[in-house]
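Project standup — Tuesday

K.O.: blocked on the structure for the chain from last sprint. Re-posting the sequence here as requested.
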Amino acid sequence: MIYCVELAFSEPAREAQWNDWYSEHLDILLSVPGFSTAQRFVSVAPCRAPYLAAYSVASGAVFESAPYQQRGGRGSPGAWAPLMVNWDRNLFDGLTQMPDVKWDQYLVVVDRPSNEIANFSVKLHLLNCAGLDRTVPSRGIAVLSADDYPVLASLANEHIRFYKALTPQLRALA
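H.V.: unblocked you, prediction finished:
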């Protein structure tokens, strides 16, 4: 399953400090049994929630576990929480692991899989919302090469977003 956290950060003067905290937060969540990968992204175009963290998780039961309750969720950001706005958490099924997006690639997220993307022969992994906030009923995701991105970039809108990696894909220690 894929766990996506999308949000905006409301205090630009502290954004670098918050990004450092969030990088540590990825490691904390990867210590929770059931989390296997984590990666952060930022949208290449302005949007409601430009930050995306995407995780591979074993099942929805992870979010009910004591380790997750102690280390994750809406209470985990502490003092950062009020500065994290437009914050949505959705759990999707359709993939067992989030694709690894390299530095020279883009992640495209399509919240209403559309014919516009299909016309460019981009194969989307279709995901269905399975839990948490349920703000998006379905989603398509794909990894694009640097060559594919310029062809598709003009399609960006509130339902089609392109992201660059902020971190490499991190893996839980086995």
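K.O.: great, moving the ticket to review. The longest helix spans residues 15-30. Residues 2-171 form a domain with the Alpha-Beta Plaits fold (CATH 3.30.70.100).
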